[in-house]
Amino acid sequence: MNNIEKIVRRNILELQPYSSARDEFSDRNGIFLDANENPFGELNRYPDPYQKELKQKLAEMRGVDTKNIFVGNGSDEVIDLAFRIFCNPGIDKALTFTPTYGIYEVSAAINNVEIVNVPLNKAFQIDLEKTKPYLNDKRVKLIFICSPNNPTGNLMNKKEIEFILNNANGIVIIDEAYIDFSNETSTIALINQYKNLIVSQTMSKAWGLAAARIGIAYANEQIISLYNKVKSPYNVSELNQKQALKTLNNYDLYSSNLRTILDEKEQLKMALQQINVVKKVYPSDANFLLIEVDNSNEIYSTLVNQKIITRNRNKQVPNCIRISVGTPDENRALITALKELR
Length: 342
Ligand SMILES: *Cc1c(COP(=O)(O)O)cnc(C)c1O
Fold this sequence. Notes:
Number of helices: 12
Helix content: 25-40%
Distance between the termini: 55 Å
Strand order of the largest sheet: 1-7-6-5-4-2-3
Bound molecules: pyridoxal-5'-phosphate
CATH class of the largest domain: Alpha Beta
Strand content: 15-25%
Order of helices and strands: HHHEHEHEHEHEEEHHHEEHEEH
Shape: globular
Oligomer: single chain
CATH architecture of the largest domain: 3-Layer(aba) Sandwich
C-alpha cells in the first residue's frame, strides 16, 4: 500500500481548511463574543465541531483513540467525503461488489466518478479472480465492501477482505452498518495495521437513531485528519450530538431491543419458510431478511395495498424482497398478509 498522500486529491492535500471560531478557542467557559451568535436562547451556540464528548464515548466503546474517529451527518456524509477527498472527478474510479447498497453508486455519480461493479458470486461472496485486475489500477481509489451486505444480509469472508486490504492500491471502505446484529467482530481492530482502511458504522440501525443522522468512520489518524479538513465545520448538530451520547449511555435499552430484534428475526424466518409463495429465505447477519418469492412485483404491491411496506429488490436480485424485522405485532401482520396470498 502506497503512502496515503499519493492517493489523495492534490487540491485536498493543499487545502487550507476553514478555521472556525470554535477551533481557535475551544474552552467551554468564557464570554463568547467571537462567532456572531445570539447571546439569548437554548440552541444559540454553535456545536462542538469535533464532537469531543461523543467521540470519547465511542473511543471507549470501540477501544480506539479519539483521533481515529470521524463523526458525520449519517454514513451518507462518510461516503460522500471519501469521494471528495480521494477521487478526481472524471478521472478516478470506485469499485463495488454487487448487489449492494445503492448509495455508493449514487454518490459516485454525484461526484462524477466512474463506478466499477464486480458481481458477487452465487453465495454472495467476493470473487477475487474478477476483482484482482482492479486492485493495482491506480485510478481505482475507493473499494466499498459492505459486510453484512445490504440487501443480501451476509457477512463477507475475512479471507477475501484481507486479500483486498493487502493488495489494493486505493482506500478500502468496509461498511459495517449492520455489524452489531452479527456475531462477527468489527474490522475496526485492523485500522492501525492497514493505513488504507476506513470502517464505516452508523447509529441508524442497531442503535435505533436513524432520525439523528449519526455516521461514524474509524481509520488511522491521517485519514481522519483529511476528513476533518474537508467536512463542513458544524456537520453534526448539538441536538444530534446530545441524543447520540444519551443513547450510547443507555446500553441496557440498546441490548434489550437488540435481543428482541434478533429473536424476532428467528421467528420471522421460521414463519416465512412455511409460506407457500416464499421460495427461499436467505441467511442473514443483519436485521432484515431477503426472501425469494414467485413474483416479487405482485407480492410487493399486494402488501403495499395493505399498508405493509417492504423493499422490492427485484432489480438487484430477481424476485427478491427485503424485509426489515419489525415489532412482534408488525411481523405478525406481515405473516398474516402473506398467508392470505395464493
Ligand atoms: C442503512 C445503511 C447505512 C446507514 O446510513 P446512514 O446514513 O448512517 O443512516 C449505511 N450503510 C448501509 C449498507 C446501510 O444499509
